[in-house]
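Please predict the structure of the following assembly.
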Amino acid sequence: MLDHILSILIFFPALAAVLGFAIQKDSIRAYGVAVATVEFALSLWLWFSFDSDVSGMQFMEQLPLVPAFGINYILGVDGISLFIIIMAAFFTMIGIASLTDTKDEKNMIITLLFLQMTMVGVFVALDAIVFYIFWELSLVPMLYIIGAWGGPLRVYASVKFFLYTFTGSLVMLVGMLFMAYFYFQATGTWSFAILDWYRLILPESFQLWLFVAFFIGFAIKVPMFPFHTWLPYAHGQAPTIGSVILAAILLKMGTYAFIRFSLPLFPDASVFYMYPIAVLAIIMIIYTAMVAYAQKDIKQLVAYSSVSHMGVIILGTFALNVEGISGSVFLMIAHGIVSGALFLLVGVIYDRRHTKMMSEFGGLAHVMPRYATIFAIMMMAAVGMPLMINFVGEFLSLLGFYQQSHILTLLAGIAIIVGAIYMLAAYKKMFFGIVTNEANRNLPDVNKRELVALIPLVIITIWLGVYPKPILEPINNSVESIVQLMHDKSITEEAKSRIPNLVKAIEITRTSAQGAN
Amino acid sequence: MLEPVNVSLESLNLMTLAPMLIPIIGALFILIIDIVKPNLDKTLYVMLSLLFLLLDLGAIAESAGIFAVNGTVMGVFDVMLIDGLAILSQLIIVGASLLFIPLALTHSRFHEFSYPEFFALFLFMISGFQFMVATDNLILIFVGLETASLALYTLIAMHNRDKSFEAAVKYFTMGALAAGFFSFGSMVFYALTGSVEINQIASVLAASNYADMGYVLVGTVFMLGSIGFKVSLVPFHTWTPDVYEGASAALAGYMSIVPKIAAFIVAMRFFEFLIHSGVVWLEVILYIAVVVTMTASNMWALVQSDVKRMLAYSSISHAGFVMAAILIGTTQSNSAFFLYWILFSFTNLGAFSMLWISRQKHLPNHQRTDHSYDKFAGMIKKSPVAAVIMGLFMLSLAGVPPFALFWGKLYMISSAVTSGYTVLALIMALNSAIAAYYYLKLIVYMFMKEPVTGNHEHVYAINATLALKTIIGFAAIGTVFALVALNPLLEFITTFVYNSGY
């Protein structure tokens, strides 16, 4: 069974969703929770059986789909994707468990299970076309979640979300077809397997163009400035569960794809575009942080702050060294946990008051002390307080980029302080002072169902902030192999010097150790 | 005194005619039955047509077997040309017809199906299309084209809406013009080369090294006009939305597939040698036609308020998309063309069938057209299965993986990439994104809007019978699981296209 654990992880929720159609409406939530728990347990089992010392792909599966055109069903997991998969399973589980009463609950849960299939699929696919299938397919359930359960502008928001991402992905698809064609020219056989593509060394001029094609697809998904305009709408209109999944998992597809595709396939182009992308990332951090400060709606604020932190992930990725990339992968997990939790928290207050305007609140700390505490912890984590999960990722990302450029890193560091300003200002507005609005005087504190979702998140936030090693180590191993691959593949001098050679570094330490002896 | 011509019967290879003759015999048979005993039920004619089409399919399968062993077969004074293109396209024609004909078994009674002539004309039309694709003789192409078109005009007019007559007459007049173009173009080429066979024309023109370029261009323009009309390239598309709107939804779906593939085969045979001989001018014209057809019809589809008209414009756009295959002109692109059209045929036929089963006999007051978007508002609440299936067809048409049409698009764009048409590949990709908007619009109506009051529960499946549901189920399964059949299909198509020299 362990040989096919990845296929099971993908198709178990889908199968469960199909069977879910037959279940009576009132019983569907228990079914959804059960399925998601089994899925989460399976993903934990995957982690348990995962060998942290191996840097390459594990649990590989291969099945020819369209051999005439080089499309194969190839799956595999490494340290980079492992934890995102676990997080996807985790968020689906607590998402369903803490789902407040919605209309058409059955449709919602079935949709979530389908969404889970596509999410897991994206992160384990090792064939570009299979990756593309799940990547595109994930749009459909999300379109439905935003469009059917969203706010007043839900149709506009959902269609904008779909079209924006779909357009970018089609450009990426053309890039993939080019990649496959170059592989065909080089070897005489068609292949869409990423591991095959890794072996292909392309001239720099090709890399530059292909990098752009892939970049458009990924950047829209992340979303990077200036392609981010769909996200505030999507978050603003989506129901709580939609925002949570979107922020925690779906956005990570873009950053994950940068590490899986762009960096190892086009190392020279990555170096070439490093500064422009870093500048974009910093604009993204600062600009969206300032926009967040201007928001009156707490959910929009969380949405913009989530975009802002995605900028740090991009910055870490394009540091192109082990610290930066490991940090950005870790930050993906951290950002998922923290922004997912913040969206859940916003959902808690929205369920009680049906408004998200910060001016409506004030002094909530007196009325809802437990809520205020959890919110404070998560907010501190979001602004990157030490001993919290975000700090580890942000620190490593910035440390990595510091080796490439001091000035830009300094700017990004300042921007994180801006993050603290708007977060604290928002917290002050909502929680401190006296209760000004009569409607808030008797709000019930967080209930059990909500605690089921929030308490584990708080625990993870602090645990991984204090002791990140269990996650950081496997990530580090896999990242090292990718950085080494990039160094070996790069052809320009610039790229060779920017991307560290890990083998040499190890040899030097070994020789110096011998010299000491 | 004329010498008696001695032709041995074997050299005629009359078996090449068998696939075309079977539907003709079937049609005559139906007419005879009607004379002997009138007023029989439509089910009889539907089943008879099905049987003859199945026989036809068998005959084509046999010729496919012969082709796989012996290669291209010529017959009947070398007029018939049974190559891979002919076989593949006949398979699509007969296959789509097999899917179409059970759609006559609706729940409500539509009077066109009570006439046996409908089925006779239908079978005549199929044989016309089969002749069109299985020859490279311009005269026989013309005969096949006219046989099929005249039958089709009548079929459209038999539907019981005022617009049906308008549609039929419009199609007829425009079609007559196109026929004129075709004969004029053929005449020019005959005058230039002394032959009406495309391969002869090609070799004579090549031998003279395209000395009379001016005349070649005149002839090409006329041919492009007539073929462009048949496959509804912009700007020859003006008839399409009106005719589709006037015809019954089932027939409209059929028209978006079968007549077009016949015309595409003619285009492939005719333009391929011209493009490959370096007639740059034609390449430019075709390039522009492809891009404009894809893009402009997408724009028009965006603003439609009726689903059927939207699908009409979308099928124009798809036609432009596959026309790119002829422009690119490699084995991969021609294989992609067939792959695309096979996948398109059951997706699109499925979508039109979904409209067909929701066709009311009389329009309620709040509904202006047969299939306005409003009618589908909130469909998920009232008829979830139908809404999901319709959504599936829309996603497939939009090119969302892993549904059928995605693979066609993938392979087609890949063929553009492989042949160095980078910009074209990007345009094709971006057009898919534009197209996604209007397909999504229907999904938005079905899944995210509240139902319009006054819609009765079963309006979405008012016409559904077991036969229709079977057809739709078949199309839906094909759409979802296309991936499974893809590899054998691709290998089969590529072998046939490659062995025909395209």
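Chain A has two domains: 1-269, 273-281+296-467. The CA atoms of residues 235 and 243 of chain A lie 5 Å apart.
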